[in-house]
Amino acid sequence: MCQNPNPSFGPNHNGLPSPSNPKEDRELKRQVQVKEFALVLANSDVAVRVQAARDIRKIVRGSPRGRSAFAVPAIIQPLVAMLQSADHVSRESALLALLNMAVRNERNKEKLVSSGTVPLLVEMLGSDNTLKEMATAAILTLSASKSNKSTIAASGATPLLVNILISGSIQGRVDAVTALYNLSDCHENGTDDLFLSAEAVIPLLTLLKDSKKYSKFAAKTTALLSILSESEEGRCAISEVQGGILTIVETVEEGSLLSTEHAVRILLSLCRSNREKYRELILNEGPIPGLFLLTVEGTKKACNYSHDLLKLLRYDSQSKKSESKEIEAIDYSNKAEETAKMLLQDMVRRNMEENIKKLQLSSAATSSQAHS
């Protein structure tokens, strides 16, 4: 009886059936690999477990299939246990492995939260070592999943993220902004779990001032400032920061649709709360052209906010007309769109004139240097 020299299946050295194609071969090897790592994490000493965690990080970092394959209790639970170790290196290696396992995988994010990672990450956020910024990145990643937001918001992470926002590195502050923005859904849903301290205003305005106003990061920053503007403490902090209102007005003029919506809402919140106090502060920064553009080109909310704010800026506290001739001259009828277009053309013209002057000055300076 002649045997098939290339059988489709047969026992291999692991006692598992041999696959019939390369894809099945890779999947089988990965299953074996996961089992081997699980045994190492369960039965080895600290140094070996640390190396295993590092190896897992390398595997899952560049492999979506690897992230899915390794997200099993036999791997996750020992790594979570390592987060509680007194050994700094063990905690760091386990955290990085879990973080890479969660990236771009919603199911893994949920698995990690259900495995008890959040309280351990919150503990790290309050530490005085480098792990707190890694924990910030992990909170950012896990909070991107809708099902995790309420658990993280209720964990006490918010004030610790604000501390990172105040005193962390640039990357730590950026990560804290994104994590807080992810959790802001809890505020919008009417829960009190996301309580932002007014202490967050200064670092948020600083980051907004230094960022491109049309960027996604600026939209996240203005969203958080909008939440802060709902409280008297937040409004006072925004107005007391040097250049704070100007930064918001610049966002109204230069921001994306979402950024401008948040920015005009901040100004409206200020003016509604105390028109006597904030009206002139806002007018001094020249917001009128940007507000009129939003009545035509902004989102529906931004358009409504702009109309309401313009009315508050138009009249003084005695309901008399403002002394501002520019506002008095505006017709709130069907000419609003035409007015906005004229304002835009004027802004473009002035910008071009300024650029031409700069080029002329630069050319003159270059010519003077050449002759000397």
TrEMBL record:
ARM repeat residues: 116-157
Query: Biased composition, Polar residues: where in the chain?
Result: 1-18
Region of interest called Disordered, as start-end residue ranges on this chain = 1-28
Alphabetical list of Pfam families matching this protein: Arm (PF00514), ARM_PUB (PF25598)
Q: What keywords are annotated for this sequence in UniProt? A: Ubl conjugation pathway
Q: Which SUPFAM superfamilies match?
A: ARM repeat
| Name the record gives this protein | U-box domain-containing protein 3
Say which species the protein is native to: Dendrobium catenatum
Corresponding gene? PUB3
